[in-house]
Design goal:
single chain, alpha/beta, D-Maltodextrin-Binding Protein, domain 2, 2 domains, 11 helices
Length: 327
């Protein structure tokens, strides 16, 4: 080998070492910067105005104050709430992308095949809110109680019901009621609660189960009528409204929850920082008031408690789905 070639190879080795050292210094400097040092994206798999969107915005508004950075909502509705988690699963695990999670994270993998994401793609950050849903009919419906509606539905099977997707808790509540009461509906698919509400008001649907925050103003305005809550106790927002259990159908008790997940591999110290910010929001009086006004209830769980809850929720939904499929 010539002297010139040896010198050339030596220079290449030195250059590679220099580049590696520079990259290591850059990474170390980035890691040393306090988190967060730029806005955090929050992917919401539902449309603007839906329950997940609204409840998430209540909490992220206060989180931004705690973290000193804005949290930017990125609505990714569609495909039964699968577009959002698919996008979040592909994001870098650096704490700058969060998934606004809800029951779909547990139920979708149990009822759908071919998903391009898995619950294993994420780690829990915190849960912040739980909320009941409400069974509603058009204002023109003659039914004024759940018992009256069930009698009418049995007399005229095949009536249209709004369906927010197979993994939505509202859809599951309808399915559980169908199983318990022996009903038959024609399911009409929608991308979320707001379009279901619009068709319910217009009389194109006979019944639906909706999140409280989506249905509340229309209930109070007399455009739709509430027959039962899916909660395990009456809601302070509608204290006169009986629960499914009080109406004779405890099997249809379904409570929605809302939280945050991060891509798997996100550093634990980042997860803890985010969880603490959620906890601060949950303790804020203004956040609690806004949540209650929309029919929700602050129910903060830190990372560890949330993980344990998710295991319990998966077991509960697995049993419920087996019950529905046996019909």
């Amino acid at each position: 080998m010539s002297t010139a070639m040896r010198r050339h190879r030596r220079l290449l080795r030195i250059a590679r070492l220099a580049l590696g050292a520079a990259a290591a210094l850059t990474a170390a400097a980035a890691f040393a910067q306090p988190y967060p040092n730029k806005p955090v994206r929050v992917i919401v798999p539902y449309p603007v105005g839906g329950a997940v969107d609204v409840m998430t915005r209540f909490v992220t508004t206060h989180m931004a104050q705690t973290l000193g950075q804005s949290l930017v909502i990125d609505n990714r509705p569609g495909a039964n709430a699968n577009i959002g988690p698919e996008a979040a699963a592909r994001a870098a695990p650096d704490g700058y992308t969060l998934l606004a999670s809800a029951t779909f994270l547990v139920v979708n993998p149990l009822v759908e095949t071919g998903l391009r994401w898995s619950p294993r793609d994420f780690v829990p950050v915190a849960r912040f809110t739980q909320a009941p849903n409400v069974l509603v009919v058009p204002a023109a419906s003659p039914s004024r109680t759940l018992a009256e509606f069930i009698a009418a539905a049995k007399a005229k099977p095949g009536q249209p019901v709004g369906d927010s997707g197979p993994g939505a808790p509202q859809t599951m509540a309808v399915e559980l009621l169908k199983h318990a009461a022996g009903l038959d509906f024609q399911s009409i698919g929608y991308k979320g609660g707001p379009p279901v509400l619009a068709d319910l008001i217009n009389g194109q649907l006979a019944v639906s189960v909706l999140p409280f925050n989506v249905a509340m103003s229309s209930i109070n305005g007399g455009r739709i009528r509430a027959l039962a809550s899916t909660s395990n106790r009456r809601s302070p927002a509608l204290p006169e409204l009986p629960t499914m259990a009080e109406s004779g159908y405890p099997e249809a008790t379904v409570i929605s929850w809302y939280g945050f997940h991060a891509p798997a591999g996100t550093p634990l110290e980042v997860i803890r920082r985010l969880s603490d910010a959620v906890g601060a929001a949950a303790a804020d009086d203004a956040t609690r008031t806004r949540t209650a006004t929309a029919g929700g209830e602050i129910s903060y769980m830190d990372t560890d408690a949330f993980r344990a809850f998710l295991d319990e929720d998966a077991a509960r939904w697995s049993k419920a789905i087996q019950t529905i499929r046996r019909r």
